[in-house]
Amino acid sequence: MKASKINKQQGFSLLEILIAFSILALSLGILLKIFSGGVNTAMVAEDYTIAVQIAESLIAKTGSEIPLKGHQSSGDENEKYHWSLTVSPFFLSGEGIDPKNAAAQLYKINVTVNWGDGESDDRQIQLTTLKLVAKNNVPS
User: Fold this and answer.
1) Taking 60 as the threshold, does the pLDDT of residue 47 lie above it?
2) Up-side HSE of residue 109: CA atoms within 13 Å toward CB?
3) Residue 103 neighbours by CB under 8 Å, 6+ apart
4) Residues of the domain holding 108
5) Cβ neighbours, 10 Å, residue 101
6) Tens digits of per-residue pLDDT, 74-129?
7) Secondary structure class of 29 (helix, strand, coil)
8) 54: which residues sit within 8 A by CB, 6+ positions away?
9) H or E segment at 99?
10) Model's pTM, two decimal places?
11) Across the chain, what does the average pLDDT equal?
């Protein structure tokens, strides 16, 4: 009986090792795809964050550095983000308010920020707000 136990194989066969390596390679491939997708999502989120910061900065400058009157301008930031700013008077229609007699004037501020490589994955955000200015501060 001892002779038959000695002849038994110990260890793994070549087929078992190949199957184990195949499962390992498949698992690693799936994990790498998940991680690369996460990195891509983080980069897109960073681009959106920068674009929103640019737009909010332009809105904050409007009224202090940029005059509140009919105005259009555009420019570039970091050679990647292209922005356009439009400031226009805003009138409430149908409210029975005469704009000439009003104590204040509303201005609509619209900022659009574009970025991308000029191909199919161009992205854009648009922020719009209203700013109220007392009539004695309204530029003519």
Assistant:
1) yes
2) 21
3) 134, 135
4) 12-137
5) 7
6) 999 988 999 999 999 887 766 666 666 677 888 999 999 999 876 777 899 999 99
7) helix
8) 77, 81, 83, 113
9) none
10) 0.70
11) 85
Residue labelled with tokens 């922020």: 127
Tokens found for residue 12: 């793994």
Helical H segments across 1-140, by residue range: 2-7, 14-61
- Strand pairing partners for 75? 83
- What b/e sequence results for 68-80 when a residue is b if at least 16 CB atoms lie within 10 Å of its CB, and e otherwise? beeeeeeeebeee
Measured distance CA(99)–CA(90) in Å, rounded: 10
Residue 25 lies in a domain: yes
Rounded CA separation 29/22 (Å): 11
Q: What pLDDT does residue 61 have?
A: 92
- The counts of H helices and E strands in the chain are 2, 4
Measured between alpha carbons, how far is 79 from 87 in angstroms, rounded to an integer?
24
Say whether pLDDT at 29 is over 60: yes
Enter the tokens of residue 94: 């149908």
Q: Classify residue 21: in a domain, yes or no.
A: yes
CATH classification of the domain holding 38: 3.30.1300.30
